[in-house]
């Protein structure tokens, strides 16, 4: 496995691989790898000749009061995990390499970023779209792999690829969970033992909504209320948002119909966790 820190070097490697007719799969991450990330690597390896992962904690997608400084980082640990997985290249640039002092561009996807995480984290998806487009231009992949856990991020990237006519297939990958249902996240390490127990309520609340929908409930207000009640019964929890949207258009809905994404963000202590589920009626 080769670690590449410079943009030009990564571009040169990719150019050579493409000349040899190799297909490239790309897995963008912020590191502190877990099984969720590794599932994307496995999927990419099964569909491409070469897999490149980026590890870059992107400062421009964090708000001023968010956890950029505190975000978990352990490159040696990540390198070992990536190597064991049989990854070909890790792109590991510095902040200066990605954002030189004269950097001036912002990529902004409109409308679908007005709700959910886009509303709670102003500017977040501009930061994501900007860095992902940069990474796409550096790695020039045939396919790129994103987790369904960040469902709104996935929608933003798909929209950007469509709007800007990029020749990249975006491959959504299912959410990988701990045994008790908690979605894997690098941020789970922030949780104390007690908070970790409370955190299982995110997935429980999604399952509650699914059960109620299966029993015939279609009223989103009632479904949200049932989820809120369950979440707030738990210690340490504070709800950021619970949203029901049309899976294709990301429009907020008041009645469950067709393919629906139920998404939520909940603070457990000071840690903000997200999760979601797709239901179809
Ligand atoms: N549990 C998971 N299952 C599947 N994919 C995941 C999971 N967690 C993260 N991913 C995906 O891995 C990619 C990199 O995500 P990232 O590095 O932000 O990890 P993360 O664990 O989600 O971090 P955090 O939750 O702290 O934001 C994204 O496409 C993300 O959707
Ligand atoms: C896509 C991404 C690597 C961009 O920084 C990040 O938002 C993430 O890890 O999901
Ligand atoms: N997985 C999304 C990255 C973030 O929370 O900033």
Topology:
Blueprint (H helix, E strand, L loop, with lengths): L1 E3 L2 H13 L4 E6 L5 H13 L2 E6 L19 H10 L4 E3 L3 H4 L17 H5 L3 H16 L3 E5 L3 H13 L5 E5 L19 H6 L2 H14 L5 H14 L3 E10 L12 E10 L2 E10 L1
Parallel strand pairs: 1-4, 2-3, 2-5, 3-4, 5-6
Antiparallel strand pairs: 7-8, 8-9
The chain binds adenosine-5'-triphosphate (ATP), pantoate (PAF) and beta-alanine.
Report on the architecture of this protein.
- With 281 residues, this protein is α/β, with parallel strands linked by helices.
- It has 10 helices and 9 strands.
- The mean pLDDT is 98.
- The protein has helices spanning 7-19, 35-47, 75-84, 95-98, 116-120, 124-139, 151-163, 193-198, 201-214, 220-233, and strands spanning 2-4, 24-29, 50-55, 89-91, 143-147, 169-173, 237-246, 259-268, 271-280.
- The longest helix has 16 residues, at 124-139.
- The termini are far apart.
- The structure holds adenosine-5'-triphosphate (ATP), pantoate and beta-alanine.
- Catalyzes the condensation of pantoate with beta-alanine in an ATP-dependent reaction via a pantoyl-adenylate intermediate.
- It catalyses: (R)-pantoate + beta-alanine + ATP = (R)-pantothenate + AMP + diphosphate + H(+).
- ATP binds at residues 30-37, 147-150, 176, 184-187.
- (R)-pantoate binds at residues 61, 153.
- Pathway: Cofactor biosynthesis; (R)-pantothenate biosynthesis; (R)-pantothenate from (R)-pantoate and beta-alanine: step 1/1.
């Amino acid at each position: 496995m080769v670690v590449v820190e410079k943009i030009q070097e990564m571009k040169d490697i990719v150019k050579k691989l493409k000349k040899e007719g190799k297909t490239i799969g790309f897995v963008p991450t912020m590191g502190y790898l877990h099984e969720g990330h590794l599932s994307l690597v496995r999927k990419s390896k099964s569909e491409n000749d070469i897999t490149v992962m980026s590890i870059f904690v992107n400062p421009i997608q964090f708000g001023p009061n968010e956890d950029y400084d505190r975000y978990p980082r352990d490159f040696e640990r990540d390198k070992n995990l990536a190597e064991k997985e049989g990854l070909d290249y890790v792109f590991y640039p510095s902040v200066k390499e990605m954002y030189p002092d004269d950097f001036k561009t912002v990529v902004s996807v409109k409308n679908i970023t007005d709700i959910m995480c886009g509303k709670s984290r102003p500017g977040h998806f501009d930061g994501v779209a900007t860095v992902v487009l940069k990474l796409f231009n550096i790695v020039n992949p045939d396919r790129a792999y994103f987790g369904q856990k960040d469902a709104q991020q996935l929608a933003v990237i798909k929209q950007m690829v469509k709007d800007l006519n990029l020749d990249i297939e975006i491959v959504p990958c299912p959410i990988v969970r701990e045994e008790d249902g908690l979605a894997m996240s690098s941020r789970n390490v922030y949780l104390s033992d007690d908070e970790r127990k409370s955190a299982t309520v995110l997935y429980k609340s999604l399952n509650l909504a699914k059960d109620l929908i299966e029993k015939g409930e279609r009223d989103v207000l009632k479904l949200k209320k049932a989820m809120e009640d369950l979440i707030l019964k738990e210690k340490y929890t504070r709800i950021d948002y619970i949203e029901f949207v049309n899976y294709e258009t990301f429009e907020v809905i008041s009645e469950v119909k067709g393919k629906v994404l139920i998404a939520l963000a909940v603070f457990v202590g000071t840690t903000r966790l997200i999760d979601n589920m797709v239901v179809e009626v």
